[in-house]
Amino acid sequence: MAVTPQLIKELREMTSAGMMDCKKALEATNGNIEEAVVWLRENGLAKAAKKADRVAAEGVSFAKANGNRAIIFEVNSETDFVSKNDKFMSLIENIGNALLESNATSLEEALEVKLASGQTISEACVEATATIGEKIELRRIAAVEGSKLSIYNHANHRISVLLNFDGNISDEDAYNVSMHVAAMSPKYLTESEVPQEFKDQEMHIIKETTDLAGKPENVAENILKGKLNKKIAEITLLDQGFVMDEKQTVGNFVKSKGSSIKQMFRFEVGEGIEKVTTDFAAEVAAQLAGN
C-alpha cells in the first residue's frame, strides 16, 4: 500500500509521534497502520532505552492535595523546553491524580502505580521518553496524611511545597508559611535536624574567618557559638524570620496561631543533580551521523 500524506497524518494523530517517524513506520510496514503503531512503539522503546543513562535535570515539581492526603513529586526531563510540552504536562497531571488516589509513599511504590490508561507510571515515563525524544523519569515523591495540610506550587513549575500542620492554623496562614518555604528555601525544619557534620564544617569555616585576636577564651567561644547559631537559623524553617512579619520567627508565628509544623517538604527541580554541559552542535551532528 502506498504511503500517503493522509496515512502519515492519521498515524501521527493516533500516536503523537514525529512526522518522519510516522513515515518510516508506514514504509516499514507497507502502509499497514496497525502494524505501524506497533513498529513505532517497539522502535520508540529502543530509543528510550538508549536514553536511560542520560542526565535529566530539568522538568516539573508539583504538589497536590485531596482531603487528608497530599503528595509532592518531581518528574525530570533533559531540557526545560519539555515543561512547555502539552503531552508532558498532561502526563504530570495524570501522575499527580494517580499518586493522590494511591497508597504509594516511596518512589518504588509510585513507579508501579497505574494511571487511568492502565499503564504504570514507570511504563508511561518510558513511552513519554520515546514519544517526546528526551529522557523522562519520576525522580522522587513524598506522601503525607494529616488533618491540616498546605501546598504551594510556584508559577514556573520548578518549586513546590508541602507542609503538615498540627493545630487549627487557618488556610490563609498555612498557605503564607508554605510560600515562605518556597521563597526562603530552608533545608531543615528544626535545629535538631541539622547534621552534626554540617555544624562541624561551619564551625571550622567560622574559626578560619573570624578574628579573635586578643579576645578572652570565654568571649571568643561565645562569638563562635553566636555565628554558628546564626548560620543554623538561616537554614532551619522555625528559626527563620517570617517574610510576612520579620519581627518574629516562623516558629513563633505558627505557635501564635495555636499550631505547629510536623513535616516539611520542599522540592526544587534538579536540586542535587550534577548537570552535564553538552555541546549541542556536536550532539546534533552525532545524531545525524547515526541516522
TrEMBL record:
The gene is tsf. Residues 79-82 are annotated as: Involved in Mg(2+) ion dislocation from EF-Tu. Keywords: Cytoplasm, Elongation factor, Protein biosynthesis. It comes from the Bacteria. PROSITE patterns: EF_TS_1, EF_TS_2. The keyword Ion transport does not apply. Residues 70-271 form the Translation elongation factor EFTs/EF1B dimerisation domain. Gene3D superfamilies: 1.10.286.20, DNA helicase RuvA subunit, C-terminal domain (1.10.8.10), Elongation factor Ts, dimerisation domain (3.30.479.20). Associates with the EF-Tu.GDP complex and induces the exchange of GDP to GTP. It remains bound to the aminoacyl-tRNA.EF-Tu.GTP complex up to the GTP hydrolysis stage on the ribosome. The lineage of its organism: Bacteria, Bacillati, Mycoplasmatota, Mollicutes, Entomoplasmatales. Signal peptide: none annotated. It is found in: Cytoplasm. InterPro entries: EF-Ts_dimer_sf, Transl_elong_EFTs/EF1B, Transl_elong_EFTs/EF1B_dimer, Transl_elong_Ts_CS, UBA-like_sf. CDD domains: UBA_EF-Ts (cd14275). GO terms for cellular component: cytoplasm. GO terms for molecular function: translation elongation factor activity. Belongs to the EF-Ts family. This is Elongation factor Ts.
